[in-house]
Design a protein that fits this description.
Layout: E1 7-12, E2 14-18, H1 24-36, E3 43-44, E4 74-76, E5 82-86, E6 89-93, H2 100-124, E7 130-134, E8 147-154, H3 159-172, H4 174-177, E9 181-182, E10 195-196, E11 204-209, E12 216-220, E13 232-240, H5 246-264, H6 278-287, E14 295-296, E15 302-303, H7 305-323, H8 331-350, H9 360-375, H10 382-391, H11 412-418, H12 428-438, E16 442-446, E17 449-452, E18 460-463, H13 472-480, H14 485-493
Parallel strand pairs: 3-16, 11-12
Antiparallel strand pairs: 1-6, 1-8, 2-7, 4-5, 5-6, 8-13, 9-10, 14-15, 16-17, 17-18
Helix pairs in contact: 1-2, 2-5, 2-11, 3-5, 3-6, 3-7, 5-7, 5-8, 7-8, 9-10, 12-13
């Protein structure tokens, strides 16, 4: 059976230093430092960072792994998340989540952290300066920044099988996960692109590879398990857009977790959805507002993105009937993924306008079409790009997204609580609770360990190599009964 699909999302946010010639690295550092200035700061432990490890066992000649920037601000929060500066962007990595609905909660908590960071930075800057943050994926000048997903998988599943089987889903899921975009920043051959489904798709140039910033691959091969490497793989996904719509995030993670479970349990039943040219296809799908353009398959036939999504939905529904959906952390949540998946595909086929409350690109396109009609604008008018950007503005008073009637899956008070409280069903609980109680004695932390400083040599490292342990069920009583770090460590070793 497939292992539980513990999941997480890492979001790089767009940043603008208004009223100044700000350096984006310095601005990002100021933003993160402003937020954590009143918190007990716990540094990130880079011991297990291995971005050069390739799941294929080799790296293509000339492949460049991401640079590990240990000199930039990088901290861990009491909700188990990581908040840091990555290259020229502030980045929020959610804690490990047990199911897609929990992931939505912590992704939205990340947005709240960035809003509070903007407010904190505002107090430090002279008028009229301000740091503005956008949850988008491109600066309009040819630079793209990502939202990366991560899923727990069984190490024994051959990576080649994962790559081959997940690619059709990555190419076609943008039907409901795309954030929408005015124009294009690349040069599609023979196409006049006024608007496209995805912000990220046009930047992908290879099928499989290690890079994340140049020659981006549809399937990324970075092999950093952040867990027991003999048992687990952390499947690292770089091909998605940043979503504001909660249903889009829910489906992005939920459908992908389901398809990965099918791959893990070899449950495709002989169905072959291999595309002839995935890179060409991912661009085609993004540019096609009809949702009906045929894609070339490896066996010589053609299929639309919608048809491929219906195939994957059908396989997933059969999988649920045969094996259940405990792999998604909660059978009820898994059933909701299937219900929402079917509903959004039906809506897109009948009339995309009916899913505007669930799909970012549809909501954005409606705003743009209304603005165009009101002002008599052509698609190349720069004001449309400004509307596009304002959709992603995280300032409540400026955001166009917050004015829309979108479907909400998580109550506002639960999102606010998640800013400081960790999930209860993964090891993030132990990490977050230790930081809340004893931050001054935590020398550093990362996904799979905590390092404690008791004031005497040596430092004490507590490994957390299983994402399914360190939960509230496993450790709440232990933590409640420990009145000091020394007592906790004694009881852990006893």
């Amino acid at each position: 059976m497939a292992v539980p699909k513990i999941c997480g999302v890492e979001t790089e946010y767009g940043i603008h230093h208004a009223g100044a010639e700000g350096n984006p690295v310095a601005s990002s550092s100021l933003l993160v430092n402003a937020y954590i200035s009143d918190l007990a700061r716990v540094e990130w432990d880079f011991k297990d960072e291995m971005p050069a490890n390739d799941a294929r066992g080799f790296a293509r000649e000339g492949a460049l792994p991401p640079e590990v920037e240990t000199h930039l601000v990088n901290t861990v929060l009491t909700n188990g998340a990581r908040y840091y500066v990555d290259h020229a962007h502030p980045e929020f990595s959610t804690p490990e989540c047990a199911d897609p609905l929990e992931l939505v909660r912590y992704d939205k908590a990340g947005e709240e952290v960035l809003r509070r960071s903007m407010a904190a930075a505002r107090w430090l800057l002279p008028d009229p300066q301000a740091i503005v943050v956008y949850k988008n994926n491109s600066d309009g000048k040819g630079n793209s920044y990502g939202t990366h997903e991560n899923y727990l998988m069984d190490r024994t599943v051959p990576f080649a099988r994962i790559a081959r089987s997940i690619t059709p889903h990555f190419v076609t899921r943008q039907l409901y996960t795309g954030a929408g975009k005015v124009g294009t920043e690349t040069s599609p051959a023979g196409r006049d692109v006024a608007f496209q489904l995805s912000q990220r798709s046009e930047f992908f140039e290879e099928e499989v590879g290690l890079e994340t910033t140049l020659k981006r691959p549809i399937v990324n091969t970075r092999d950093e398990p952040h867990a027991d490497p003999q048992r687990y793989r952390r499947f690292h996904v770089i091909v998605g857009d940043s979503n504001l719509a909660e249903v889009a995030t829910f489906l992005k993670v939920g459908t992908t977790a389901l398809v990965l479970a099918l791959i893990e349990d070899d449950a495709f039943g002989g169905v072959d959805l291999t595309l002839a040219n995935p890179v060409k296809a991912i661009h085609q799908v993004s540019y096609d507002l009809t949702l009906a353009e045929p894609l070339e398959m490896a066996d010589g036939r053609t299929a639309t993105a919608m048809e491929l999504q219906w195939e994957l939905y059908g396989l997933s529904r059969k999988y649920a009937e045969d094996r259940g959906l405990d792999c998604l952390g909660d059978d009820t949540v898994g059933r909701e993924v299937l219900r929402r998946w079917e509903g959004v595909l039906n809506g897109l086929e009948a009339d995309p306008a009916t899913v505007a409350g669930q799909v970012d690109w549809v909501a954005k396109l409606q705003l743009l079409e209304a603005f165009r009609a009101r002002h008599g604008l052509g698609w190349k008018d720069h004001r449309l790009s400004a509307v596009d950007l304002q959709y992603h503005d995280l300032r409540p008073e400026r955001s166009l997204f917050v004015r829309l009637a979108t479907d909400h899956l998580v109550e506002r008070d639960r999102i606010l609580a998640a800013v400081s409280e960790p999930p209860r069903r993964t090891r993030a609980y132990f990490r977050g609770q230790c930081l809340r109680r004893w931050a001054s004695q935590v020398a550093s932390a990362n996904w799979d360990s905590l390092v404690f400083d008791l004031g005497t040599d040596p430092l004490r490292r507590v490994p957390m190599m299983d994402p399914l342990r360190g939960t509230a069920e496993h450790t709440e009583e232990l933590l409640e009964g420990s009145f000091s770090v020394a007592e906790l460590l004694t009881r852990l070793s006893g």
